[in-house]
Write a structure and sequence with these properties.
This protein is α+β, with helices and mostly antiparallel strands. The protein has one domain. Helix content is 26%, strand content 25%. It contains two helices and four strands; from the N terminus they run E-E-H-H-E-E. The strands form two sheets. It has a two-stranded antiparallel sheet with strand order 1-2. A two-stranded antiparallel sheet has the order 3-4. Strand 3 and strand 4 form a beta hairpin. Helix 1 crosses helix 2.
């Protein structure tokens, strides 16, 4: 299980300012499911597709590198 830190901008945090939340999860899909439980249904609808995958406009960084542009 890995610790994953989500940095949530204020626009996705219902105007509450930027928020950092750490989640322990086995996979990114598991992490998004857990953060959605913490942040609520509005966050889930805005961030995830119906199948639970992140929407294309959501940036995911792994060790500081954008996962969309990394290989593997």
């Amino acid at each position: 299980m890995a610790n994953i830190t989500f940095t949530i901008p204020s626009v996705l945090n219902q105007g509450g300012g930027e928020k950092k939340t750490e989640i322990s999860a086995d996979s990114l899909q598991d992490a998004f499911a857990k953060i959605s439980e913490v942040m609520g249904d509005d966050f889930k609808r805005r961030v995830l597709e119906g199948d639970g995958t992140p929407r294309s406009l959501i940036n995911i960084y792994i060790n500081g590198k954008n996962a969309k542009f990394s290989s593997g």
